Amino acid sequence: MVERYLPLPDLPPWLEGFVTTRGDAHDDGRYGFNLALHVDDHAPRVERHRQELCATWGLRGVQWLEQVHGARVVSVDAVAPEHYTADGLCTAIPGVALGILTADCVPIVLWREDVPRVAAVHAGWQGLVAGVIAAAVEALGAGPIRAVIAPCISAARYEVGAAVWERFATHADVLREHPDDPAKRLLDLRAVAASQMAALGIESAAMPQCSYDDPRLYSHRRATHEGTVPCGRFATVVYLRE
Question: Which of 30, 99, 129, 197 has its C-alpha lying 20 to 30 A from 111's C-alpha?
Answer without folding.
Answer: 129
